[in-house]
């Protein structure tokens, strides 16, 4: 009985198949259109290309570093704040580098020189990528002068002593936009300069 009813409905729907398929194609083309704002950062594309080169050259330390970066990027893409700029990618590499430096310290205390050498090589490779990223990294001296100027401006504006650190960070936000800066270290430097 169900086969018979299916045949009857298919005979009646033959007339409107062409219009249905054209509507379906229009909707499908709209659903699959892409925008340019979702393009990955250029530095990420360089890392992916270097991964292929490292695979061909069988460069194991570089390969493990690049895989760690791409894995962390993939994990970040599944969160509410995915990596969208080169600055964010450099900050991600710095976090990976920090964990590698912690592993070096742990290996030194355990007396494992083989692991120390391996982790130090990975830290060196990450330094290469940070330097070659094209993102401007501010040194401690530059940050100190920027922070001192912002502290003076904040004090001149009459900001309360307890609120100076937050006010200075807000004042520096524009100057630090698009640059590689460790904001926690900057906040600690500002607290030290203010005397808190």
From TrEMBL:
Q: Extract one GO cellular component term from the record.
A: mitochondrion
Keyword list, A-Z: Mitochondrion
Under the heading InterPro entries, the entry gives:
Asn/Gln_tRNA_amidoTrase-B-like, GatB_Yqey_C_2, YqeY/Aim41, YqeY/Aim41_N
Q: What is its main location?
A: mitochondrion
| Compartments in which it is found | Mitochondrion
Give the Gene Ontology MF terms in alphabetical order: carbon-nitrogen ligase activity, with glutamine as amido-N-donor
User: Which Pfam family, any one of them, does this sequence belong to?
Assistant: YqeY
Domain of life (superkingdom): Eukaryota
User: Member of which family?
Assistant: Belongs to the AIM41 family.
> What is the name attached to this protein's record?
Altered inheritance of mitochondria protein 41
Q: Which organism is it from?
A: Claviceps aff. purpurea
Which gene is the coding source of this polypeptide chain? AIM41
């Amino acid at each position: 009985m169900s086969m018979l009813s299916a045949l009857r409905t298919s005979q009646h729907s033959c007339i409107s198949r062409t219009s249905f398929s054209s509507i379906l194609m229009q909707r499908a083309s709209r659903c699959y259109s892409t925008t340019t704002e979702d393009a990955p950062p250029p530095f990420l594309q360089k890392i992916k290309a270097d991964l292929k080169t490292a695979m061909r050259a069988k460069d194991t330390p570089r390969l493990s570093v690049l895989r760690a970066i791409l894995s962390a990027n993939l994990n970040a893409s599944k969160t509410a704040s995915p990596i969208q700029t080169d600055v964010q990618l450099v900050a991600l590499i710095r976090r990976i580098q920090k964990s590698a430096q912690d592993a070096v310290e742990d290996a030194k205390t355990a007396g494992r020189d083989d692991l120390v050498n391996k982790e130090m090589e990975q830290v060196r490779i990450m330094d290469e990528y940070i330097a070659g990223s094209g993102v401007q990294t501010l040194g401690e001296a530059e940050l100190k002068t920027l922070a001192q100027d912002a502290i003076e401006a904040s004090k001149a504006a009459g900001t309360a002593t307890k609120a100076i650190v937050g006010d200075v960070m807000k004042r520096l936000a524009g100057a630090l936009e698009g640059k590689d800066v460790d904001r926690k270290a900057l906040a600690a430097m500002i607290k030290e300069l203010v005397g808190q």
